[in-house]
Design goal:
It is a multi-pass membrane protein. Belongs to the CDS family. Keywords: Cell membrane, Lipid biosynthesis, Lipid metabolism, Membrane, Nucleotidyltransferase, Phospholipid biosynthesis, Phospholipid metabolism, Transferase, Transmembrane, Transmembrane helix. The structure is a single chain. By secondary structure, the chain is mainly α. It has two domains: 133 residues, no CATH class; 134 residues, no CATH class. It is 74% helix and 3% strand. It has a two-stranded antiparallel ribbon. A hairpin with a 3-residue loop joins strand 1 and strand 2. Helix 2 packs antiparallel against helix 3. The N and C termini lie far apart (42 Å). The model has no long low-confidence stretch (mean pLDDT 93).
């Protein structure tokens, strides 16, 4: 157990250092890596369902997630801004078209790869857009989610009594969830005091309300991933990260938080 914990810490520190370096430099290296992560997320969802990724729908879903993630207008100047969604729709139509040409391939079969690629691709797309807007936006989201997860774990372990949603995640408690919100508020207060530009001049009380919303969204994203894993009878989304489970186990909260940051006008 001690060696497993050491491996987890070493890998976690190394991965954090690489991520921060990529965030700092941005551009093609960062966007390329995030695109690969989106494709890996689709692979994990396919693996949880017991589907092969090297099938036409698997390859189309992976490509759809990649095209949805990248800022395509930066590389293909003839494309209009926000061309990701139209291109994603075209690939989704291609997957739906399989119901016409492939015997026994139904609408229900087609919905899974489309939903999987959108779920992963759009969240990572918003991560890319946040980084392009400013490093502080990404750091705020990362630290808010980290504080939410950490405080929810420690407060829940020490004071947790009432189960939050035992049918989805038996170990999560109401007390832990409130502790996670408190952690998000602390991070938000620190950013407001020392990096106020992150919030674009928003009213202090509005910022606090948004922080609560982001924390709840992050926890909900974690619950969604737990629900998916429970449905498919797996403990982790994958084994990509030693000691940490799969990619989606680490990014499930952020996939829900970044779109809300965009909707709230942070970038």
């Amino acid at each position: 157990m001690e060696k497993e914990l050491q491996n987890r810490i070493v890998f976690g520190v190394g991965a954090a250092a690489i991520l921060l370096a990529l965030l700092w430099f941005g551009g093609l290296p960062f966007q390329f890596v995030v695109g690969l992560l989106a494709m890996l997320g689709v692979y994990e969802l396919f693996a949880m369902k017991g589907l092969a990724i090297n099938t036409p729908e698997g390859m189309l879903a992976s490509l759809a997630a990649l095209l949805l993630t990248l800022p395509l207008e930066n590389y293909l100047s003839f494309l209009p801004n926000d061309s990701n969604i139209p291109l994603f729709v075209l690939l989704a139509m291609g997957i739906l078209g399989s119901t016409v040409f492939v015997k026994g391939y139904t609408y229900d079969d087609a919905v899974f790869p489309i939903a999987s690629s959108f779920y992963v691709g759009y969240g990572f797309h918003m991560l890319v857009r946040a980084q392009m807007s400013g490093l502080d936006k990404v750091l705020y989201a990362l630290l808010l989610v980290w504080a939410t997860d950490s405080l929810a774990y420690f407060v829940g372990k020490r004071f947790g009594q009432r189960k939050l949603l035992p049918q989805v995640s038996p170990n999560k408690t109401v007390e832990g969830s409130l502790g996670g919100i408190a952690g998000a508020l602390v991070v938000t207060l620190v950013f407001y005091l020392f990096s106020g530009a992150t919030f674009g001049g928003k009213n202090f009380f509005l910022v606090l309300l948004l922080a609560i919303l982001f924390s709840v969204a992050g926890q909900f994203g974690d619950l969604v991933e737990s629900s998916i894993k429970r449905h498919y009878g797996v403990k982790d989304s994958g084994r990509f990260i030693p000691g940490h489970g799969g990619l989606l186990d680490r990014f499930d909260s952020l996939l829900f938080v970044f779109p809300l940051l965009h909707l709230a006008g942070f970038f």
